[in-house]
Design a protein that fits this description.
The chain has 372 residues and is an alpha/beta fold. The chain has twelve helices and twelve strands. Helix 7 links the parallel strand 8 and strand 9. Helix 2 runs parallel beside helix 3 and helix 9 packs across helix 11.
């Protein structure tokens, strides 16, 4: 996934996308590279500079590169905690008339809540981080020419950014994703669900596990199996929950699975699982990469909250309430069975992705329009 990033200093690109992304975060790596591919297809000579280090080494690399590279446009994607360290090189690039786009994957207001509820950040650091996010980050964002956000922002000091914030939805390179046409008239007595995630509490997989546990205690025509793919701080809690309820046969954990191994796993999956507890980080609007992957693969999926790329009446989406209310697995099973009866195959889901989710169709308007 990592691109050849040598000679950035000597070659004049129209655009360089600098992203601080750890190697295990495959979804974001794919997003950055798909963005670059789509920009190049739009005749914007672009390249990615992916920083995979942790801690101060990553900050120093980004700091140094910002003084060296010489594009017309820079996109920055990193944690808000990094921005204060980059103030000087960002001002340097602005003096050179470089256009700056800052990609904010999570609204600052949500980061404040995440920090407040985190068990892993010492209390003494929480106040420092909150001060940075609430006061310094908005100042730096004001220097940018465009700020990309995927959900509504609510930090008071970002109100002045209204003319710079562009609310966008994630795109995906649909052609790169395997599609297997399915005949829904083939009868079987089990349903496989799959959740792809850097597993966190707002994914709400615990809610789904509880619903599966209740469902399995009923008289049923279909068994349900939930495959969880990925790592993350919430994974150990989910493993304990599964053991406590003796659900090891029905909830299966996979490590990070990629490429052909992931394609093979998807071939036996029926329903994708998006985030089911966005309310836990005070969100109702999201733009999840996993939803776009499920759609591109042609499998229906369940989610909570709103996604601007999908109409509320999409027949291939089951929407759970975005609150503490329990998830009803029996209702999900009924929805899926009715869905199978109404459609002969899943090609229309793939066609929706090709028409509405492709990076190539989104990227120029969202990122570049008005800057060149």
């Amino acid at each position: 996934m990592k691109r050849n990033i040598q000679n950035h200093e000597r070659r004049r690109f129209d655009l360089i996308y600098i992203a601080h992304v750890l190697k295990e975060n495959k979804g974001v790596l794919k997003k950055v590279n798909n963005t670059i591919d789509s920009l190049n297809k739009n005749n914007i000579n672009s390249n990615a500079l992916i920083i995979g280090n942790k801690g101060i080494i990553a900050h120093l690399k980004i700091f140094t590169k910002l003084f060296i590279i010489n594009p017309k446009i820079i996109i920055l994607r990193m944690t808000p905690f990094t921005f204060p360290a980059l103030l000087l090189p960002i001002i340097y690039q602005k003096i050179k008339a470089t256009k700056i786009i800052i990609d904010i994957p999570t609204p600052l207001s949500i980061i404040v809540l995440e920090v407040k509820s985190s068990e892993y950040i010492p209390s003494c650091f929480k106040n420092v981080i909150n001060f940075i996010v609430k006061n310094i980050d908005p100042f730096i964002l004001n220097i940018a020419d465009k700020v990309l956000e995927y959900s509504d922002e609510n930090v008071k000091k970002t109100k002045s950014l209204s003319n710079k914030i562009k609310y966008i939805t994630n795109g995906i390179n649909v052609d790169e994703i395997e599609f297997i046409e399915r005949n829904y008239k083939i009868e079987k007595r089990y349903i496989n669900l799959i959740g792809l995630a850097n597993i966190s509490i707002w994914h709400g997989y615990d809610k789904l596990i509880h619903s599966i546990n209740k469902y399995l205690a009923t008289i049923r025509d279909y068994d349900v199996y939930f495959h969880i793919v990925g790592e993350g701080e919430e994974k150990k809690n989910l493993i304990e929950l599964v053991k406590k309820n003796k659900l090891e046969e029905y909830v299966i954990f996979h490590n990070n699975v990629i490429d052909e191994a992931l394609d093979k796993l998807f071939r036996i999956m029926d329903i994708g699982v998006c985030s089911l507890a966005l309310y836990r980080k005070k969100m109702n609007i999201s733009s999840e990469l996993k939803a776009r992957e499920y759609c591109s693969r042609g499998i229906p999926f369940i989610l909570s909250g709103e996604d601007r790329d999908f109409p509320s009446d999409s027949p291939f989406i089951y929407k759970c309430n975005n609150n503490k209310e329990e998830i009803n697995m029996s209702e999900i099973v009924k929805w899926y069975i009715n869905y199978n009866k109404n459609y002969e195959n899943n090609r229309f889901i793939r066609e929706y992705a090709e028409s509405n989710l492709n990076y190539y169709n989104k990227i120029y308007k969202d990122y570049i329009e008005g800057l060149l």
